[in-house]
Design goal:
Elements: H1 4-22, E1 28-33, E2 37-43, H2 48-55, H3 59-85, E3 91-97, E4 102-108, H4 124-138, E5 144-151, E6 154-160, H5 165-172, H6 176-194, H7 197-201, E7 207-213, E8 218-224
Antiparallel strand pairs: 1-2, 2-4, 3-4, 5-6, 6-8, 7-8
Helix pairs in contact: 1-3, 4-6
């Protein structure tokens, strides 16, 4: 059971942290957690400078700038989660929808704990089958695949062991930014068009986010859904 007071405290602290680092925080932050994960869904998160850059079609420049800032605040984020929820975060992922100024931030505990936290839910076999197929088409079959809900609106899909040899060589050669752009575009397109979430869970998503830990060969997919 989520501790509402702890989540409220974490929401407030994270809002202040983002304002301090970015100069402007999101209009709203929706925080949720379970035994292995904490998610933060940001809405209307964009600064005046970023708006100008986006109007000039400098989306990747905005992403790169945000990555620099986010990497600096990750230790503070982990400390806040540990203090508020007593959850020791190992890896943090984040992604942005720059069209509607939303974003997601996901903190995961050590992946060795995922197996014990697997849950049954409507459409899970179909979702796993679809993600495996898309992963195989885009790169390779995942060595491991887990999924879990942190709240009725947020589904996390975790994959590990998905990089092919060519991608690993590109990373060693310093092409991580280009690889990230290409994979985000390809996989988001495939996940949006080839996974029928309405068939799986009876609802259509209003958000899709992806991120990777290339050094660990891990990735997350996050589907968000509107309120029922």
């Amino acid at each position: 059971m989520e501790n509402r007071a702890a989540l409220s405290q974490l929401t407030s602290q994270m809002g202040k942290l983002l304002r301090d680092r970015f100069g402007k925080g999101p209009e709203s932050i929706f925080v949720s957690s379970n035994e292995v994960c904490v998610t933060m869904h940001f809405r209307q998160f964009v600064s005046v400078v970023e708006k100008i850059m986006l109007q000039q079609n400098k989306d990747e420049a905005v992403r790169e700038m945000r990555q620099l800032v986010m990497d600096l605040l990750l230790p503070d984020f982990k400390a806040l989660v540990l203090e508020s929820l007593d959850l020791e975060i190992t890896d943090v992922y984040y992604d942005w929808n720059l069209d509607n100024h939303s974003g997601i931030m996901v903190g995961l505990v050590d992946s060795s704990k995922f197996e014990a936290h697997q849950e049954k839910y409507r459409g899970k076999p179909y979702i796993h089958e679809s993600v495996r197929r898309i992963s195989e088409e885009a790169e390779k079959l995942p060595d491991k695949l887990y999924s879990f809900w942190t709240n009725p609106r947020t589904l996390i899909v975790y994959r590990s062991g998905i990089l092919i040899k060519l991608e690993k060589e590109l990373l060693r050669a310093g092409y991580e930014p280009a690889l990230r752009v290409a994979k985000r575009s390809l996989e988001k397109s495939m996940l949006l068009t080839e996974v029928d979430m309405n068939r799986a869970v009876g609802r259509s998503p209003d958000g899709l986010y992806l991120d990777w830990k290339f050094d660990k060969d891990q990735s997350i997919i996050v589907y968000t859904f509107p309120n029922e």
